[in-house]
């Protein structure tokens, strides 16, 4: 295991001003925290963060990044806390270590291949700082190097994840060496057969070409030197994974692969690159179509180099990469290299870094920042900050716009999930559906069958899909309610007329009612657009209508008697156009204000359970419920067709309050109002509104809107009010 001073020396080799105290403190702290923890291979656990730090010294990173590497597993795996790290190392380092902790927790979630792109975005969004990613990549590299010590059943997943997520990420950050190593290590695990085959063939070719690489290396170096170009030439074999990918991509066999050896020519200046190219091209025949100039047109990740392929000695094809040392550093270390190699010709760096704007931004930062530390400090990953990425419990990753709620999430998973959603768990805890989702949240949607999304959700949801679905579901639910009401109305009408009700008959009559289907027709009846009498007539054209008179004008004794003789607690009302007054079976059951019927209650005074009620149909609005004593009913005396038999159908277990208005005349003396309010409160009544209607020197008349359980409750309240000496009268309005 590397000693404390060895790590320090490594850092000081490239950064003489490194903060010794910080590095030593981080080393000791992490070592103590990990204590006797062991890795799978029996090594002390601390050797892992130490190796990760060492990898980052190869990338010549600043000392706070090295400290973060030492600390990167402490919050997750030891009793260390963010607060403690903040105090000891400062908030900046604390934030970075916490970022790594978040990413580590993400590793526990299984991921599908098609999710890789989203996952990479999530990583970038969650990292917020390029240093977090650099440490994460080094962490993954060390874990891959020691993968053989992991339990066998975990290796595959880790290697796949490396191939799908981390290696491409390293590539996009321009860290090609890191990318290649990650790929090779993962390739051997993910596809051992292919890896074995390619490696074997490579070994054969190596024997066949023995000395060839060295020969070309020497040849080329001498030629360049003769022409006054200072150059270093390195021969290299292509890596098995890149060979395998090429075979796969081009669907060719190993034999058809021509350029499995390559050379890198490193020179001092851009001018030397082109001079060297000229020498190469006059020495060996070139392979047409293989020349690429990434110096004049850099790649999107700012990779710059000249590529060409020649036919060398022994008719062996060889790929050459010609670049400056600075360009090489960028190619190997990518974003990390920008921290150290200030390119004076900054304008040459890809002006059109299209794919990853942040990379361009980091290059700009490079130009602005004076020190590598400052550069990294300023490089915040602002990419994808308009999105959040959340998981389903099964690990599917869902991308949503920022500000999205679990409602949006539910609809993004499936419309049915959204429509029947009633609650949610965020990271295992029940939370309101209005909660704003955060990156990496695991969202579990709780559904209930037959649920309809409240229309208020439309203003909470931020995605178009959710909003449109909520609107659609609300429309469908309302239509269904109206159709249900319409069905009851039609059934009762048929019953009263002594006619048989059947869907088949209704269907046959649809053309006469100019309706497409039964559901639509019934909904129209429910909305009061088609009188039930018309339906009856359409189905039974020969039916002779017996006009039922409205109750007050019809001289029906039962109704009059009913109005004066309220049966105590009967909870039931019937309007009886004809026949037995006790028979309420014709009446349509009406639940409370939030019941499943699209009904509303008259504005003035309202109706409370126990009141005898009637419904009045209004086209387009459905039914309005009035207590039978309501003076408003006079307006409908001439339209008996609009009257409906309704009755209360209140669920005793699921009670709700109903609005009722009373008028109180009281003596003006101090405390009168308080007394009245007290009586109402003592009786469990809610005052929703109180208005002084008339105020004389000695008396006041006030209108009070109450919420009560039922008629019994209201009457008890009124009689208690009347008992007070300050109250001269108390009466229900409309009552
Ligand atoms: Mn680790």
TrEMBL record:
Q: Which SUPFAM superfamilies match?
A: ACT-like, HD-domain/PDEase-like, Nucleotidyltransferase, TGS-like
Domain ACT, which positions?
661-735
Every HD domain range: 45-144
Query: Which reaction(s) does the protein catalyse, per the Swiss-Prot or TrEMBL entry?
Result: GTP + ATP = guanosine 3'-diphosphate 5'-triphosphate + AMP
Sequence ranges assigned to domain TGS in this UniProt record: 386-447
- Record-linked SMART domains: HDc, RelA_SpoT
Record carries keyword Nucleotide-binding: yes
Q: Which domain of life is it from?
A: Bacteria
Question: Does this entry carry the keyword GTP-binding?
Answer: yes
What's in the keyword line of the UniProt record?
A: GTP-binding, Nucleotide-binding
The EC code for this enzyme is 2.7.6.5
What family does the Swiss-Prot or TrEMBL record give for this protein?
Answer: Belongs to the relA/spoT family.
Q: Which PANTHER family match?
A: BIFUNCTIONAL (P)PPGPP SYNTHASE_HYDROLASE SPOT, GUANOSINE-3',5'-BIS DIPHOSPHATE 3'-PYROPHOSPHOHYDROLASE
Protein role: In eubacteria ppGpp (guanosine 3'-diphosphate 5'-diphosphate) is a mediator of the stringent response that coordinates a variety of cellular activities in response to changes in nutritional abundance.
Please state what the protein is called: GTP pyrophosphokinase rsh
């Amino acid at each position: 295991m590397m000693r404390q001073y060895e790590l320090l020396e490594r850092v000081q080799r490239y950064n003489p001003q490194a903060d010794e105290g910080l590095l030593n403190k981080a080393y000791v702290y992490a070592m103590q925290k990990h204590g006797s923890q062991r890795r799978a291979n029996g090594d002390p656990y601390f050797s892992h963060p130490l190796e990760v730090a060492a990898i980052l010294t190869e990338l010549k990173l600043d000392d706070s990044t090295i400290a973060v590497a030492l600390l990167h597993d402490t919050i997750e795996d030891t009793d260390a806390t963010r607060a403690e790290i903040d105090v000891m190392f400062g908030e900046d380092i604390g934030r970075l270590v916490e970022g790594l902790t978040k990413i580590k927790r993400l590793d526990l979630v299984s991921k599908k291949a098609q999710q890789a792109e989203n996952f990479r975005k999530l990583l970038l969004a969650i990292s917020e700082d390029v240093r977090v990613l650099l440490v994460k990549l080094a962490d993954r590299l060390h874990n891959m190097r020691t993968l053989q010590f992991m339990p066998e059943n975990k290796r595959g997943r880790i290697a796949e994840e490396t191939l799908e997520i981390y290696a491409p990420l390293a590539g996009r950050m321009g860290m090609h060496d890191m990318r290649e190593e990650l790929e090779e290590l993962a390739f051997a695990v993910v596809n051992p057969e292919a890896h074995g085959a390619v490696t074997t063939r490579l070994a054969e070719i190596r024997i066949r070409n023995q000395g060839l690489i060295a020969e070309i290396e020497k040849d080329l170096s001498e030629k360049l030197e003769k022409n006054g170009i200072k150059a270093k030439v390195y021969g290299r074999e292509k890596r098995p994974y890149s060979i395998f990918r090429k075979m796969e991509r081009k669907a060719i066999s190993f034999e058809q692969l021509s350029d499995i050896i390559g050379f890198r020519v490193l020179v001092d200046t851009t001018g030397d690159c082109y001079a060297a190219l000229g020498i190469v091209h006059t020495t060996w025949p070139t392979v047409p179509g293989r020349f690429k100039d990434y110096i004049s047109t850099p790649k999107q990740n700012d990779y710059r180099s000249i590529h060409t392929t020649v036919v060398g000695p022994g008719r062996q094809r060889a790929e050459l990469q010609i670049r400056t040392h600075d360009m090489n550093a960028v190619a190997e270390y990518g974003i990390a290299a920008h921290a150290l190699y200030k390119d004076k010709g900054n304008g040459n760096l890809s002006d059109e870094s299209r794919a990853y704007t942040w990379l361009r931004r980091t290059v700009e930062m490079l130009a602005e920042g004076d020190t590598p530390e400052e550069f990294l400090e300023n490089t915040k990953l602002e990419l994808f900050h308009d999105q959040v990425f959340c998981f389903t419990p099964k690990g599917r990753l869902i991308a949503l716009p920022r500000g999205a709620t679990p409602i949006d999430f539910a609809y993004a998973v499936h419309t049915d999930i959204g429509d029947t959603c009633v609650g949610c768990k965020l990271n295992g805890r029940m939370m309101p559906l209005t909660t704003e989702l955060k990156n990496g949240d695991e969202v579990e949607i709780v559904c209930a069958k037959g649920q309809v999304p409240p229309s208020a959700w439309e203003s909470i949801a931020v995605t178009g899909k959710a909003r449109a679905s909520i609107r659609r579901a609300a429309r469908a639910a309302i239509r269904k309610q109206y159709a249900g009401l319409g069905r009851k109305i039609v059934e009762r009408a048929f019953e009263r007329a002594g006619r048989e009700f059947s869907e088949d008959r209704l269907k046959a009559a649809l053309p006469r009612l100019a309706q497409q289907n039964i559901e639509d027709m019934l909904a129209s009846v429910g909305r009061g657009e088609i009188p039930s009498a018309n339906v009856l007539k359409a189905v039974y054209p020969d039916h002779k209508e017996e006009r039922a008179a409205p109750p007050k004008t019809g001289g029906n004794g039962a109704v009059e008697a009913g109005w004066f003789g309220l049966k105590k607690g009967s909870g039931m009302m019937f309007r009886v156009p004809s026949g037995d007054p006790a028979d309420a079976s014709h009446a349509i059951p009406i639940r409370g204000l939030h019941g499943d019927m699209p009904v509303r209650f008259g504005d003035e005074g309202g109706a409370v359970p126990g009141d005898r009620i009637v419904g009045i149909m209004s086209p387009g609005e459905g039914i309005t419920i009035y207590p039978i004593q309501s003076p408003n009913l006079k307006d409908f005396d001439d339209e008996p067709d609009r009257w409906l038999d309704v009755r209360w159908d209140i669920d005793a277990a699921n009670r709700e309050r109903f609005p009722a208005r009373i008028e109180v005349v009281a003596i003006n003396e101090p405390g009168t109002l308080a007394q009245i309010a007290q009586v109402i409160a003592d009786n469990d009544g809610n005052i929703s509104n109180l208005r002084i209607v008339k105020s004389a020197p000695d008396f006041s008349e006030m209108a009070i809107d109450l919420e009560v359980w039922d008629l019994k409750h209201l009457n008890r309240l009124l009689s208690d009010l009347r008992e007070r000496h300050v109250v001269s009268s108390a009466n229900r309005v409309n009552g």
